[in-house]
Design a protein that fits this description.
Length: 290
């Protein structure tokens, strides 16, 4: 039986995540009280017909209580076959979602603004986020993209020889990738944006890749970055973390960062890593121009 714990920020998409998982054949239960998690899992394990289950726990069910949070975290640490999926989103987006739905944040009963509630929740969940096997940032993620990420999680068979790496290209002017374990900046490289013939293209196009990699420092950076990632990712086995997320950023997230993400992803895939690539901001500059 495969067991997933779904948790994360209120408003980050846990309900939608469970709906997608149900469509994918996973038995899902929302808002399980934290003090009943271990009992509920044992009950599910006694049902042989269940192959995959997902349990949603968050501050509604007691994670805001320090003693209960410590208890469930200790249980999850001891049961390393349980995978944690943490849903995340930037503060501005969470606030906007609450305004659109006109719902109150679960911590509102204690008083304070939505911003204060989000800050409190983020601090409360910081430790369990560090334990997560997968951190999914839904800030600019549509329904299809979220489904693809969840399908990738469900379909990936983790072995000691194969680690998962999420590579995300992004533009610094649109904000960093909050869920990334590592952030790398390639703005030191010459920008194809200032070449008229390259401006409408992206780092997935060969002319842009040839331009970027035509500079000696680009090849040296890619080599050093590959060596670092290929070495550091397997070290996470020691803390039972089988997915590492790496953000590579340039100014707008269209040319240099996409080039590096694409080429690094190919090299890591060839080396046997399970690589998932996302170009978060690749269309944003062009959408603004249109």
């Amino acid at each position: 039986m495969k067991i997933y714990i779904i948790t994360g920020m209120s408003g980050a998409g846990k309900s939608i995540t469970t709906q997608i998982l149900e469509d994918l054949g996973v038995f899902c239960v929302d808002n399980v009280p934290v003090n009943l998690v271990s009992t509920f899992i044992k009950l599910c394990q006694s049902k042989q017909e269940m192959e995959k289950i997902a349990i949603v726990i968050d501050i509604r069910g007691g994670l805001y209580q320090e003693d209960l949070r410590a208890e469930v975290m200790d249980y999850l640490k001891k049961n390393q076959d349980i995978e944690i999926i943490f849903l995340e989103a930037e503060d501005e987006v969470l606030i906007s979602r609450y305004q659109e739905t006109r719902r109150r944040h679960p911590l509102h009963q204690g008083g304070g603004s939505t911003e204060q509630c989000i800050a409190m929740e983020r601090k409360t969940l910081s430790e369990i986020k560090k334990m997560a096997d997968f951190v999914l940032n839904t800030t600019s993620c549509n329904l299809n993209e979220l489904r693809e990420k969840l399908e990738h999680i469900l379909d990936s068979d983790f072995t000691e020889e194969k680690m998962r790496i999420n590579l995300v290209s992004f533009g610094f002017k649109y904000g960093i990738v909050l869920s990334a374990d590592y952030i790398f900046d390639v703005r030191f490289l010459p920008n194809p944006f200032y070449k008229d013939e390259l401006r409408p293209l992206t780092g997935k196009d060969e002319p842009v890749q040839n331009y970027v990699m035509g500079f000696e420092q680009a090849g040296e950076f890619l080599k050093r970055l590959y060596d670092f990632v290929a070495w550091v990712v397997p070290q996470y086995r020691h803390i039972s973390k089988n997915t590492v997320e790496i953000g590579i950023g340039c100014t707008g997230g269209q040319h240099r960062s996409v080039t590096m993400t694409t080429l690094l992803g190919r090299q890591l895939s060839d080396a046997g890593f399970d690589v998932y690539m996302e170009d978060r901001d690749i269309k944003k500059d062009r959408e603004k121009e249109s």
